[in-house]
């Protein structure tokens, strides 16, 4: 049966890098993969065309598709819009609507790009970890929230507040997702919380321990988030899979990605309970280099590989794409963001050419 993919090119460099991903899809299709795709609007381009960042038509198509591939949204021209109309609202909305609660963020250091990192080679060479971040709960969505006038010890003044809240069902489903991810790798899972201070994360730890009974083959450890931040920089290779809540995961996954030094190289997956997912590079729309054939399309192409692996169950095709990216790096092709000494400087399209040549 044909598997249907929805493509959301978005804004800035989005359409340029998506064009290279589409060339990869075309190649796989002509080699026999039974896939089809359609396009829709999200972010700034959707605001321009329809007045809203996540139009109903896009929502319908996203829910009907087997997987969604998104490039990036946003741009300085939209900063003047009210909050509900901002392109980034489209991102939050599609994650919520698809109920993709499990965000997989790999941080992988390619041997050819070790020098792109700001850390010492011995600390990061060979690094290959995944952070599993809960994506639709926690303090980012918790109620009550707001800014209001209150009487405090200083007098009547503005007070800002948010609520960190997790139900045991929310914790259980992300824990299952993390244990399953760990089972496919080194069978080592580190759960990160702040149980010494926050009740919500005491429950987190309790439930993760309960779920661990179903995964006796996975070695579970726990770490407080402040220590985890420190350990990620001191000795990141001690980890394999880490699982944590939305806010801690936001911060730790960005820190982990920068260990690799190459924002243009990192894909991500956001999965629902059935493995349906939203796949996107971790970087934004890079308005500073948009339209100049400068963007690195590899994070986008690696997002295709994650989609093949996690939603379309096409592991051989996923391996083929991952391997093609490794080969073009070994051949010395470099966009500006990953330039290394002696590298062959290429643009977005030429990097796509190199990947296609290997495929
Ligand atoms: P950004 O990730 O777009 O860019 C940060 C820096 O990295 C820039 O210098 C950019 O040129 C470079 N860069 C990013 N991707 C690259 C690639 N593939 N190849 C080469 N260089 C690359 O983050 P920034 O500048 O903070 O945000 C720009 C816009 O993107 C904003 O409107 C922001 O809201 C939006 N954004 C969207 C995201 C998404 O769609 N998931 C995530 C982050 C930001
Ligand atoms: Mg972030």
TrEMBL record:
Protein's pathway: Amino-acid biosynthesis; L-leucine biosynthesis; L-leucine from 3-methyl-2-oxobutanoate: step 3/4
Binding site for substrate: 95, 105, 133, 226
Site feature: Important for catalysis: 140, 194
Annotated residues for binding of Mg(2+): 226, 250, 254
Subcellular location: Cytoplasm
Domain called Isopropylmalate dehydrogenase-like: residue spans: 4-355
GO CC annotations, alphabetized: cytosol
Protein name in UniProt: 3-isopropylmalate dehydrogenase
Organism expressing this protein natively: Ephemeroptericola cinctiostellae
